[in-house]
Amino acid sequence: MHEAGLMQSVLDMAADAMRAAGGNELRTIRLRVGALSGAACEALAFAFEALKNGTPAAGARLEMEQVAVRLVCRACGCAFEPLGFHDACPGCGSGTTDVVQGRELELVSVDLAVPGETEASGGD
Amino acid sequence: MSAVGEHWTVQVDKALRGRNDQFAADNRAHFRTAGVFVLNIVSSPGAGKTLLLERTLAALREELRIGVQVGDLQTDNDARRLSGHGASVVQIVTNGCCHLEAGMVAKALESQPLGELDLLIIENVGNLVCPASYDLGEDMRIVLVSVTEGEDKPLKYPTIFRNAQLVVITKLDLVGPAGVDLQLLRENVRRAAPQAHLFELSARTGEGLMDWYAYLRRARSGQAGAS
Fold it and tell me: What is d(CA B135, CA B145) in angstroms, rounded to the nearest whole number?
């Protein structure tokens, strides 16, 4: 859902970070994608390949860290990663839990090529 | 420092939806300053958002100054239905965008002075997927699910149910005719939205509406008392 628009934001933000750091070529773009973020990694990867040409990320590699849902039980405080989205607390069986991890959707970092170095583009 | 292939890492740590999040934070600050309580109502298309709002506007118009923003891809049909109940109504036509974003809400506020409102109700585009991920700056996100959508509907859309403060089961009058296992639907709502309050009503027959109005009054007073 909207992965093309999200990926365009990634490319824009990565290029901004590159320019701010004085670089001119992106080598790696790292994302953190939570299971409840509303974005699918496969679709993000597809959008990356479709949109990166002609940008400073043309020769870059996309790395995505997938973040699992993590819940905390309100009844007993147990923290756990459910197998599905709706698991009850394995400690006390309560179904009343809060999401403490899994909503992330972030550009974490970029790797920049050393300025002045030319290398055949194409990455991996 | 000039080895071919050398690179260095720059930390960024920025949310991809940062632009929407900033608009949402600005909206939220404006709402708080003006003392306006804001609801974001989401559901599948056809779950009964507009009819519930028609009833709500009619019931509360003497007590609260209410503003409504309603989002649709096309037409102003919903805005027409909601006008005539004393509320200021703004139709947001998204021209294809499948969800409302905080920037659209901010733009609609240009014709809805917050100083003239106690309660702002935003009826989102009918869609159980995309609105889940876009904060509009609201105080409360409410998911409607009608009894005819299938008892396992809440389990199929984890993100939107997990992000809701309130779930409202609608069209109670159709439980019998549609052969609905209401208890199973309730259980699935509880599994998908353990953090949310649950209401059940029929905007058509009026069943459950009094409790819904009372809840809105309490929620609005609680927020007004806190600010």
Answer: 20
pLDDT, tens digit (0-9, with 9 covering 90-100), for A79-113? 999 988 788 899 999 888 999 999 999 999 999 99
Size of interface A-B (CB pairs under 8 A): 99
Query: What is the pairing mode between strands B140-146 and B37-43?
Result: parallel
Cβ contact B2:B119 at 8 Å:
no
CB A44 within 8 A of CB A62: yes
Tokens of A39: 């974005």
Question: What Å distances lie between residue A100 and A43, A74, A85, B160, B189, CA to CA?
Answer: 25, 12, 13, 16, 20
- Check if the beta carbon of residue A27 is closer than 8 Å to that of residue A61: yes
pLDDT tens for residues B110-142?
999 999 999 999 999 999 999 999 999 999 999
- Catalogue the E-assigned strands of B116-196: 119-123, 140-146, 166-170
**Which residue in chain B is spatially nearest to A104 when comparing CA positions?**
B15
Nearest of B91, B37, B31 to residue B60 by alpha carbon? B37
Contact A14 B12 (CB under 8 A): yes
Burial of A72 (0-12, 13-18, 19+ CB in 10 A): middle
Residue B45 CB-half CA count within 13 A:
6
pLDDT tens-digit series, residues A27-86:
999 999 999 999 999 999 999 999 999 999 999 999 999 999 999 999 999 999 998 878
Contact B13 A106 (CB under 8 A): yes
Q: How many CB atoms lie within 10 A of CB B14?
A: 17
Phi/psi of residue A26, nearest 5 degrees: -90, 135
Interface of A with B (CB under 8 A): 1-2, 6, 9-10, 13-14, 17-18, 20-21, 23, 27-28, 31, 36-39, 85-86, 95-99, 105-114, 116-117, 119
| Min Cα separation A78/chain B (Å) | 15
Interface residue B155 vs chain A (CB under 8 A): yes
ipTM for the whole complex: 0.87
Q: Does B1 touch chain A (CB under 8 A)?
A: yes
